[in-house]
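Entry for the shared binder. Reason: the reviewer on the internal report wants the predicted structure included alongside the sequence.
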Amino acid sequence: MRIEFNINSYNISLFTHHNVSKVLLFLFGSFGTMAYAQENDTIKINANTSSAQDLERLNTLPISYSNQVIKDFTQTEVYFNHTKNKFARKQTAKETNRFGFRSQGLFNLKNDFKVFGTIKLEKFLEKSLAYNLDNTRTDDLEVLNPTYFFVPRAADWDNQQYDISAGIIKNFGNFNIAAKADLNAEKFARKADPRPEISTQKLNGELQAGYTYNQHQIFVFSAYGKKDKDYKYNYTNSQLNSIAYPETYIRFNSGYGRVINQPYTKNRYFSRTSFNKFGGGYQFKSDKTQILGYYNYQKSLEDFYNEYFKDSKYLRFKYQTISHLGQIQLRQKIVNKLLRASIKGSQSTSKNFDVVALGTNYINRLRNVTFDVNLLNQQKEIVHYYLGAYASYNQNRYLDQLGYTDYQINSLNIGVYGNHDFVFANQSKINLGLAVNYYTALKNNLNYVNILGDTENMFYDNVILHDNIYNSTDRLDTKADLRYMLPVKNNKNVVIYSQFRSIFALNNQVNTEINFDKNTSYQINFGIQLNY
């Protein structure tokens, strides 16, 4: 089989006290500005999980809220998350503990002027992560993006992340403007040889513009961003970086199976990724009905340099991703009930171009269609019931021409979810939520040819084959959510919540004799949230 592919042949740092202080003062100053809330607010974002869809739309498409009344809100919380992975992909930590702070809100400064923003600070500790010396994980990815270092030896990591975003929504008569900016920074450090230290800084800006005529709105949007990644590693015992010690001998993966031994003589590298996005959409809104449809095109290009210097002579790989996404949403009021439905389709194609070899060695194609529908029965602040169901179909292919690996997997996720409020005499309440998701692989084909030696068998046996078994195994993902909500003075309420999630392996469609752990994975969350 022969397949040919062609490809179109200022530093940001949050890790200083000075910059962090400025950003925190700006955001908390904005969040502290309270505006008069109109009595006819139509959208109220609260602690119930039914508000998650409204929050997602606010952060991704704020222009769609330009002609809607949203009640002022602030959510501030601290949380702890513990994850124990037994039934999981190989390049996933066996255990993760997360500690975080998050605050988000929206305020109506005037009838036609809204500001919104989010700040999230998180520290997380990972235990026993193998075959991965990068800052990406396979928790939610079938296959890691190419161009990363790895060793078989598992080790612990100490990491931190900072996410800050802010935006505005403003009307000028019939013209609507929304703008937002996102700043993200990460720092990852491994605690055993080899010891990579990874820092990333990403800045993204987006402008959205629309025009409203009666009940109709058309809009367009465009975004641009850059992400810088500084990568370096060291050994406390340099002798461990030798082929005589295969567990700690560093290797480089440029695809999904193409492994390069002793890739480069330096121990510090740099990559820069640029992002471009544009699109448009249409929205219809009446007293009871809202229909929203939009499309966006996005292109990202990562340049990987085998030196820290950003000089073209050190450019080694170019990893390009082009994606298309379209979505239609319906929001319908039905006598004290709210019906919401959405259908979303996406496709992306990624190619890794080897600058030295002058060819594309790796490509993936990802396709997805998702349908979601839910019904909310809520009177004032009491949720009598919130019920929903969804289905998601994925069609993915990963091809490493020099590996040689050709992996195709089609899968289906179907699930149901819901929650209900139990109210007490003191106006406090308990919300109980349940969700169940079933995953099955509809098609699973793996073709592999060991054309580069025994080292490639090691990666195939321990990563490719292992993850193929995981991806082909039917599984059940269950979640239980318990929230205690206590009203306090000045229209504030305190929410104490806990969540439990477990992932069960049901059966697998691949017969193999390799050691594969099918014991249940689980996740526990605890948090305290203040809403006002």
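Summary line for the report: The chain has one domain: 18-198+222-531.
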